[in-house]
Design goal:
The protein is an alpha+beta fold. Strand 2 and strand 3 form a beta hairpin. The longest helix has 26 residues. The relative contact order is 0.12.
Length: 222
């Protein structure tokens, strides 16, 4: 009886390991039989659709097709329809959107990406939508990089998606804290460098967010 039990347990263990191996191989694109994609850094032709590059915040899924040389097409986890895909090579990756889809630039705000996290909370959407609508420059801030985290600044990229667009592509600047104040950027000067390549201070215009929004922003701040 004990011998049979050991055989059963060993079989379960072997099956579990084999299943994990198959999953890893699948995620690693070993079992990808679609090699029909025509891929470059700014254009994709795949599955009867043409795609062009676009900026946005997304998380990359598994490989779903292969192209010439070392190009592959990866899925976008937020979009099961593959209207958005990722063109990836050994060194680079580019978000792509199908040319037959028009990305909504206004309308109902349905998703916000803040620091790479997708947020659909109604209270948060309403608050940030109001902040974006009323923002105007309150002060100008000097920084070596608005994206850097330090004792004086903790700012995060902000993207919007309207009308249930699956991927956030509308860049709205940076939102977070500067010198302990809640702010959102209104405009950012070009990132500049000294002759030796070291960073140089540049100007960022900011709107100081009214305190009525602080509590809801704090819930999603990281």
């Amino acid at each position: 009886m004990k011998k049979h039990l050991r055989i059963i347990l060993l079989s379960i263990l072997i099956f579990g390991v084999a299943a994990q191996v198959v999953i890893k191989l699948w995620e690693g694109s070993v079992f990808i039989f679609d090699h029909s994609a025509k891929v470059s850094s700014n254009y994709v032709l795949w599955n009867g659709r043409e795609y062009s590059s676009i900026s946005g915040e997304y998380s990359e899924g598994r490989t779903i097709a292969k192209g010439e040389e070392d190009w592959v097409i990866d899925s976008v986890n937020e979009d099961p329809t593959h209207t958005f895909i990722v063109a990836r090579s050994f060194l680079d990756q580019y978000l792509m959107v199908a040319d037959d889809y028009t990305v909504p630039a206004n309308g109902e705000l349905t998703t916000i990406s803040w620091n790479g996290t997708y947020i659909t909370d109604t209270e948060f959407l309403t608050a940030v939508s109001n902040i974006d609508a009323q923002k105007a420059t309150s002060f100008t801030y000097q920084t070596y990089g608005i994206y850097e985290l330090n004792d004086n600044q903790h700012m995060r990229e902000l993207y919007f998606a309207y009308e249930n667009c699956p991927v956030t592509t509308i860049f709205k600047g940076y939102m977070g804290k500067v010198d302990g104040k809640w702010v959102i950027t209104t405009s950012i000067s070009a990132d500049t460098r000294n002759e030796d390549g070291s960073p140089k201070l540049y100007s960022v215009n900011c709107y100081e967010i009214p305190n009525e929004y602080w509590d809801v922003l704090s819930k999603f701040f990281s």
